[in-house]
Amino acid sequence: MKVLCDFHHGGLYHAMSLLFEKRLGWELYRPIGYDWLPWWRVSDLAPTQAAYLNPAGEHTLGDDGYWRWTDHSAELEHKCMTLQQFKAEDVGLIVSTHPGHEESWHALWQEHKPSAKLLRVAGNTGETVNPKWTRNLLDSTAFFRGRVESYCAFHQEFPLDVFLDYPLPPQPIVSQYLNFYRNHPMFPFWDTYRPQFPDWEWKMYGHQGDDGFLHPFWKLAHSMIESSFIWHVKREGYGHIIHNAFAAGRPVITKIGGYRGYTAGAMLEDGVTCIDLGAGVAENVAKIRHYAQRPELLKLCANVRERFKRVVDFDAEEQQIRAFLGGLA
Predict the structure, then answer these.
(1) What's the pLDDT at 76?
(2) What are the distances in angstroms from CA 155 to CA 22, 82, 233?
(3) Per-domain residue ranges for the chain?
(4) Taking the domain 173-311, which CATH number applies?
(5) DSSP 3-state assignment of 102?
(6) Buried-most residue among 38, 96, 100, 188 (CB within 10 A)?
(7) Is there a contact between 313 and 153 (Cβ–Cβ < 8 Å)?
């Protein structure tokens, strides 16, 4: 089956590729070309539109007539479909992962492919879901509280083979991976706690980070397993970084309150799998120092690995998703 999926961000599209291509054996495509603009609503900015839709630059045209682009972070080749190809091809599933596409992808489906199935994938908290436009929802946030005709919760898959078992560093290392973290409203927490541990190594990766951007994906994984703690003070429903950290067997320093009721919240337990910054600074600093002691930290790491295996099972979810996809409205 051919699947058209918009491109929201790399981690989510990688998860869609692992699901539809690797597990189900289907063909996954994303839009290319400015003809898509009546339905493509990621941004009104010309540079952003060019980065997503302009086939020039880093895109190459294959012998089969499809444009291709390589995501070097995921080491994944995207196959791209023009609007004319979409109209001519037998596309059986249309997937919208960007909240701005809920209504426009519905219009695209109605106008050009009413015989196909339309699927909405929710990947971030705060996304609204309107049953007028969405009948089928695949949800990785646990945020949705309404009703749709067909619903399935899932975890966004990522490769696990790169998260090797690795000994803790001799001196504590705290690493964070959010892009543009200096502009994030939670950045003051980093500035508050970092000076409290001058003998520790603090690494800030990602765009605008002091320690550079990590890609391909295995470099991020290796950085995590070489760390003591993963700093992730941010509110979101799925939380790729939290799930990556748990796959690496490394506890996170976070604020649990921002995740209660959402997908990542099932893995977070203060003093067991993470360190919650829910108290005052002095109390939190003392707690971090306590759990940084080697015996305590080894317990946390073992708990984190066990909790990830208990909560996340991509193989079992594949069977649930297959049943869900087989019954789409």
Answers:
(1) 93
(2) 16, 30, 20
(3) 2-155+314-326, 173-311
(4) 3.40.50.2000
(5) helix
(6) 96
(7) no
The size of the chain, in residues, is: 329
Q: How far apart are CA 309 and CA 65, in angstroms?
A: 42
Three-class DSSP category at 172: coil
* Cα–Cα distance measured from residue 249 to residue 308, given in angstroms and rounded to the nearest whole number: 8
User: What is the CATH number that goes with domain 2-155+314-326?
Assistant: 3.40.50
Q: What is the pTM of this model?
A: 0.93
Phi-psi group of 291: left, alpha or beta (phi > 0 → left; psi -120 to 50 → alpha; rest → beta)? alpha
Q: What is the pLDDT of residue 146?
A: 80
Q: Please report the pLDDT score of residue 123 as a whole number.
A: 83
Check residue 15 and give its pLDDT. Answer: 96
Reading the block at residue 278, the tokens are 């829910």
Mean pLDDT of all residues belonging to the chain:
94
List of the chain residues with pLDDT < 70: 236-237
Is 26 within 8 Å of 2 (Cβ atoms)? yes
Residue 18: CB atoms within 10 A of its CB come to 20
Predicted local distance difference test score (pLDDT) of residue 237 = 61
